Every structure is written in C-alpha cells, then in structure tokens.
Q: What sequence folds into this?
C-alpha cells in the first residue's frame, strides 16, 4: 500500500518538475533579452509564452532574436564609436589617405617623365 502512494507522489513530483522545467526553459530567451537590455524584450517574453502553445516551434528563433542584440554594439552589424574616437579615427584615416595620395602623385609624375623621355 505504501509503494502505491509513493509511486503516486513520485508521478506528481515528476509532472510538476517537468511542467515548471518547461516554463523555465522557455523563459531563457526573455532572461537573455532582459540581461542584454534588448529593446524588444517584452515581445520576446510574449512570444515565448505563445511558443508553449505552438509546440515550441518559435523557441529557437526567440533564442536567436534575444542574442542578436547587445547594448554595447546594438545589433552587431556596425560598431558604435563614441564621439572623439570617431573623429580621431577619421582624422587618422584622412592622414593616411593624404600620404597615399602624395605617393601616387609622385609615382604618376615619374611615370609621365619616363613616358615623355621614351618618345
């Protein structure tokens, strides 16, 4: 008789653990979005609940959606640069471009001189 009640209690325990485990797993994308300060974290949370009722089809896409955004660089397609860093980068790039232009201008003048000498 004791084993019957023990088995029933074990079944209830396993069902509860599975139920709460599935809910906890489906909140992982929302927790990632919240940690990364994702601008659409509420939509990810709602879609996670909807995914529970759609046989978990949406869940992998929610994981990807939540991990794409990072607060320090946005969506990751471009890197954000702070004010002075951008200006310094542009000035260094402009200086390097001027040096390359000077070298090319010198080489072009030499090429023209050689071409004129051959004619």
A:
């Amino acid at each position: 008789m004791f084993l019957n009640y023990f088995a029933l209690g074990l079944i209830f325990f396993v069902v509860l653990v599975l139920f709460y485990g599935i809910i906890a797993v489906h909140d992982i994308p929302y927790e990632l979005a919240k940690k990364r300060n994702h601008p659409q974290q509420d939509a990810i949370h709602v879609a996670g609940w909807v995914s529970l009722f759609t046989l978990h089809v949406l869940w992998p896409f929610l994981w990807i959606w939540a991990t794409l955004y990072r607060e320090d660089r946005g969506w990751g397609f471009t890197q954000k640069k702070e004010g002075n860093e951008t200006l310094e980068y542009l000035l260094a790039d402009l200086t390097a471009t001027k040096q390359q232009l000077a070298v090319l201008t010198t080489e072009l003048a030499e090429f023209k001189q050689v071409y004129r000498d051959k004619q």
Notes: Residues 22 and 49 are 11 Å apart (CA to CA). Residues 83-118 form the longest helix (36 residues).
